[in-house]
Write a structure and sequence with these properties.
alpha+beta; Aminopeptidase; binds coenzyme A; 13-stranded mixed β-sheet; single chain; 275 residues; 28% helix; globular
Length: 275
Amino acid sequence: MTDTITFDAFTAAHLHGALRLSQDAGWPHRREDWQLLSRLSRGVVALAAGKVVGTALATTFGDVAMANMIIVDVGLRGRGLGRQVMTQAMAGVTVPEWRLTATEDGLPLYEKLGFVATGRVLQHQGVPVAQTLPGGVDWADAVDLEGIAALDRQATGAERGALIVRLMIEGKLAVVRKGGNLVGYACLRRFGRGDLVGPVIAESAETAQRLIGFLISQSQSSFLRVDTTEAAGIAPWLTAQGLAPVGGGVAMQRGGSIPPAAPVRCFALAAQALG
Ligand SMILES: CC(C)(COP(=O)(O)OP(=O)(O)OC[C@H]1O[C@@H](n2cnc3c(N)ncnc32)[C@H](O)[C@@H]1OP(=O)(O)O)[C@@H](O)C(=O)NCCC(=O)NCCS
């Protein structure tokens, strides 16, 4: 069967097939979620008789790139296709550092490709408890974009300006200021089964929780998701807000170095695919 497989660059024409693959894998992505990712990425599809049977995307943020949306049709797994789509998607991108969030299925492949675990990603979701509107949080506007991108860079070491512009178009960004300076930002947007809060970048857990509480109170959806990390330390608080832990993944890295502790930290991911 694998000898009938061809590879092509990922384009909008593959969105429908890619969506079917991710749904078959039990992932909640909507067509719009694939669209956001593919707009920011270059990708590869594996095709069997014109049908999408494998996908992999590479999203570059300056010196850091994310490998993501690596999926192989369930009937064709274990034959080297995952390795092929992933290495082809990564081949066109030259960066010193790669990152990804691994599922259990993906771990063996990523370890073979030289990725090492750096921490745990924790997925929390559910119907949040009602929030009292926290003070000191404002909606961001376009003039804040540069400051938000700078804050994000401090916390992630990645140049995510283009992502942040997209998030502002597709969602809503909230900020916390101190003495005229931004000390935190967070995004609320539609994703999967409901709304998602992330990224959340802040100077402290208290500021992060204030931002998340504010966005929960503004969400029009009854279902909300936050992807945090074990290192961020806010998982128990998220659980207390009605967002139960439902699994997660392993954060992995290839190349680069462990960044020195920054005054601002990442408390929630933009998405497991985006870090
Ligand atoms: C992860 C996934 C893409 C792997 O695709 P695949 O086509 O089965 O992977 P491959 O056949 O290319 O296997 C890659 C390597 O991992 C190894 N491997 C795969 N599963 C393994 C396992 N359970 N234990 C040990 N090694 C394993 C293979 O032997 C292979 O090594 P080799 O290239 O040196 O022979 C596929 O399982 C999948 O789509 N899973 C659901 C979606 C998902 O979780 N994606 C990962 C997102 S992070």
